[in-house]
């Protein structure tokens, strides 16, 4: 994904952040591939998870292909600017990370399995970048929405850190923080790599090739 302006690797303060706007970005009513609602309310019994792992185009496609995922959307989370535009996020002056919202059926896919996909689909040791994509918007983050999600995210991080260290990687820089306001990205970003929008589109996979032990430290056995 192209960056606008200079690369920003330092988090902006609330006082220095861009002012944003009072209205949200318009997005399609339905998922381009799955046909489910893009915005809430979501189907009964589903849960929501939110992850930042670099460029959100490829990350969203990875998640929507997982059986049990009902809907996905891309947006901006973890910053200060209300209803930011993509160009603003790319300046580093909103504080947001490019984030994927994942709506899933816990009876078909567990949050731990989503965490496994998250860890294995990027390099969580790179700080404010993924590969050649540099800036605070490309940082790695898990935005948890319940105490259970927080505990499972921390357990998976600790287990994966050992695997990464054994493989010669540095420390994990992933933020594990409470979910904040999720601002939907512009409609052209939603399901950007779908057949209907960009059938020949590409977003690099920065995974380390190190597997995540999804079953480690499971409280439910």
Describe this structure in words.
- With 221 residues, this protein is α+β, with helices and mostly antiparallel strands.
- The chain has a domain at 47-189: 2-Layer Sandwich (Peptide Methionine Sulfoxide Reductase, Chain A), CATH 3.30.1060.10.
- The protein has helices at 56-64, 86-90, 111-120, 147-166, and strands spanning 47-53, 69-77, 97-104, 129-130, 133-134, 140-144, 175-178, 183-184.
- A six-stranded mixed β-sheet has the order 7-6-1-3-2-8, with helices on one face. A two-stranded antiparallel ribbon has the order 4-5.
Percent range for helical residues? 10-25%
Could you spell the SSE succession in H and E letters? EHEHEHEEEHEE
Number of helices: 4
C-alpha Rg, in Å?
17 Å
Q: Which geometry do the CA atoms define?
A: globular
Compute the separation of the termini in Å. Answer: 40 Å
* CATH topological fold name of the domain at 47-189: Peptide Methionine Sulfoxide Reductase, Chain A
Largest sheet: 6 strands, mixed
List the helices and strands and how they pair.
Elements: E1 47-53, H1 56-64, E2 69-77, H2 86-90, E3 97-104, H3 111-120, E4 129-130, E5 133-134, E6 140-144, H4 147-166, E7 175-178, E8 183-184
Parallel strand pairs: 6-7
Antiparallel strand pairs: 1-3, 1-6, 2-3, 2-8, 4-5
Helix pairs in contact: 3-4
């Amino acid at each position: 994904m192209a960056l606008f302006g200079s690369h920003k690797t330092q988090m902006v303060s609330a006082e220095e952040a861009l002012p944003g706007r009072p209205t949200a970005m318009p997005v399609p009513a339905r998922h381009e591939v799955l046909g489910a609602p893009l915005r809430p309310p979501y189907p009964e019994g589903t849960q929501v998870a939110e992850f930042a792992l670099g460029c959100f185009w490829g990350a969203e496609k990875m998640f929507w292909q997982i059986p049990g995922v009902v809907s996905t959307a891309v947006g901006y989370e973890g910053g200060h600017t209300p209803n930011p535009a993509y160009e603003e996020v790319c300046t580093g002056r909103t504080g947001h990370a490019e984030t994927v919202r994942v709506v899933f059926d816990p009876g078909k896919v567990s949050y731990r399995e989503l965490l496994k996909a998250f860890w294995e689909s990027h390099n969580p040791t790179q700080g404010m970048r993924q590969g050649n994509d540099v800036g605070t918007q490309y940082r790695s983050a898990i935005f948890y929405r319940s105490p259970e999600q927080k505990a499972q995210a921390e357990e998976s991080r600790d287990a994966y850190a050992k695997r990464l260290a054994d493989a010669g990687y540095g420390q994990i820089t992933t933020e594990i923080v409470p979910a904040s306001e999720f601002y939907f990205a512009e409609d052209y970003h939603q399901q950007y790599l779908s057949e209907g929008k960009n059938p020949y589109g590409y977003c690099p996979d920065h995974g380390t090739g190190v597997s995540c032990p999804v079953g480690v430290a499971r409280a439910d056995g």
